[in-house]
Design brief:
Blueprint: E1 17-22, H1 38-47, H2 85-93, E2 98-103, H3 116-135, E3 141-146, H4 152-162, E4 168-174, H5 187-195, E5 200-203, H6 221-242, H7 244-247, E6 253-256, H8 263-277, H9 288-295, E7 296-299, H10 309-319, E8 324-325, H11 348-363
Parallel strand pairs: 1-2, 2-3, 3-4, 4-5, 5-6, 6-7, 7-8
């Protein structure tokens, strides 16, 4: 939903929500400077980011709107959408009844840096920045631990260092990594997450240098956007078949911004193949669907919207109301307004599960 009216919507709603996907943004590329050691501050100023993409200093792909944002989300004080806490309160937290908002900071992402030591420093700076400028002045906001996941030992150390701070409620990774995320290289991250009882969120995106399809680079942003769900399916299969869920049964995994309409057919397909090929993966003690139903949650935005409301209810029942976490993707262009996110009429119990209780349980948030 791209709101074209520049006026801030003032009508409040009685609905309370835990929004599991809010994107804070740096007011300027130098915003992280106070949180970086001098060496890396100088490095950032001199060399910038060095990513696995062909054009330095540019986005990997042309996006639908400037800064990927709603046209009305540019702060009146200047800066980028998502960079002004006061405006975020006025435009989103207050009128939309946000009881808690889970921050998903997308960049500059330490995970994507070719210089992994710089990536570690960026992640630590981003974690300090979230505390100082977002969660401490606004208790409704909760942060994600940024980790340099291509350096799993450093990532695990950062998790253990931050996890006791209750302002952090999850660990954030992106979906475009150098190898499928179920592989053993990444297991120190899951071991630390399980030890600290902290969920791991996989947000779509990232800069791995690989195309998002098995057939090479696509032509249109439309295709790039659609491929988020396909990429997430590949990662889920990796988590299942590499044995992550079997080895770490306490691990909670959250799929963020990849939709959820594909989940039922995906689970059916995995189970069908498992019946015939299970001799290849004897380390799995359960059906793929059983691991996912035990350890995986899905944020709701973007909600797939079939024409027939009954079809949406079928999908919601097949996915499971206990697996869904409400999200808006504020301030991005495809924001889901909590009042209109579902065309189907949910019961009060279903609404409470999706909008509040599931997230409260997954993140351990107080009433």
């Amino acid at each position: 939903m791209n709101i074209h009216n520049p006026a801030v919507r003032s009508a409040k709603t009685d609905l309370k929500v835990i929004d599991c996907d809010i994107h804070p943004t740096l007011a300027s590329p130098r915003t992280l400077d106070p949180y970086l050691p001098q060496r890396w501050r100088d490095h950032f100023a001199t060399y910038g980011q060095f990513l696995r993409e062909p054009f330095l200093g540019s986005s990997t792909y042309p996006k639908a709107t400037p800064a990927l944002a709603r046209l009305d989300s540019w702060p009146p004080t200047g800066g980028l959408p998502g960079s002004d806490l006061a405006f975020m309160r006025e435009q989103h937290l207050d009128p939309n009844g946000v009881e808690y908002g889970i921050l998903q900071f997308l960049g500059p992402n330490g995970q994507d840096q070719r210089n992994t030591e710089f990536g570690v420093a960026l992640c630590q700076a981003a974690n300090d920045w979230q505390l100082a400028e977002w969660t401490e002045p606004e208790p409704r906001l909760k942060a994600s631990i940024m980790i340099p996941c291509e350096d799993p030992q450093a990532a695990a150390a950062e998790i253990r260092r931050r996890a006791k701070n209750k302002d952090f409620v999850q660990i954030l990774m992106t979906s475009r990594t150098r190898e499928p995320l179920g592989q053993r290289k990444y297991w120190p991250i899951y071991e630390a997450a399980a030890e600290e009882s902290m969920p791991v969120a996989i947000h779509v995106g990232g800069v791995s240098g690989y195309p998002t399809t098995p057939g090479g680079w696509q032509s249109f942003y439309f295709e790039d956007h659609y491929n988020h769900s396909i990429g997430m399916q590949a990662l889920m299969a990796s988590f299942v078949f590499e044995g992550v869920f079997e080895t770490f049964p306490e691990l909670k995994l959250i799929s963020v911004e990849a939709g959820f309409g594909w989940v039922p057919a995906f689970k059916w397909r995995l189970d069908k193949h498992w019946e015939r090929l299970r001799s290849e993966v004897p380390h799995l003690k359960s059906k793929p669907s059983e691991y996912m139903e035990r350890q995986v949650w899905f944020t709701t935005q973007p909600v797939e919207e079939p024409e027939q409301r009954a079809q949406m209810m079928d999908v919601l029942n097949w996915v499971g109301f206990d697996r869904l976490l409400f999200s808006t993707d504020y301030p991005h262009w495809d924001f889901d307004d909590p009042r209109f996110a579902f065309k189907s009429t949910l019961s009060e119990e279903q609404k409470r599960m999706v909008y509040l209780d599931n997230a409260r349980h997954v993140f351990g948030l107080p009433q």
